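Practice problem: predict the structure.
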Amino acid sequence: MSTQPFRFLHAADLRVDQPVGGLTKVPEHLRDLLIDAPYRAAEQVFETAIRQDVAMVVLSGNVVDLVTPTARALAFLRDQLQRLSDHGIDVFWAGGTR
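Answer:
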């Protein structure tokens, strides 16, 4: 058994296909930014894992809605997981309840 230290990154409930909520009126010029915000935030998580050269990423909870996922969310997740794989970073994902 190895006792070498290692680095990992943990992220939970990224919910990339769920736009920012709770706003009643959104100015037109901010709508696309808010729709893309969960994707950009998640992308930064994966980018940080690559920059910090972690051994693994641990994802928990709802990364995407697995019951009714959008094509965009699935393509995004596929691309990000491929990026991590290309850098030799393992991913462990414990899905959420919905």
